[in-house]
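Comment on the following before class.
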Amino acid sequence: MEEALLKERAEELLDFIMKKCLWQFHSRAWDRERQNENIIRKTMQLLCDEPVENDTPEQKCYYVDAAYLAESYKKRFPWVAEMDKADLRKVMQSLKERLDYLLITGSLNAELTDPLY
């Protein structure tokens, strides 16, 4: 898959998260890092028909958000089901990198790193 199309697909998925998912608003950077890693990885595993770990209460919480995303992505974006799994993994990695930038490293929200908050 060409780089431009990969980024375009990741942006479509990102737009859905930004409009429909409240979990993006955790108040600490480390919470956001953990949620992005777990939710996006589990979503990718579900979309690629791979086993998903959900043994702990925390993992089950991430799984619920991932299941919602995977199901929504399949319904709203037909190309998700048609995409090669290797390309889908690339799209999901690009999505995670962009999400991390927007919600953590590029965020101007000072309370994300305030040690007193």
Summary: The two ends are 43 Å apart (CA to CA). The chain has a mean pLDDT of 93. The chain has five helices and no strands. Residues 3-18+33-109 form one domain.
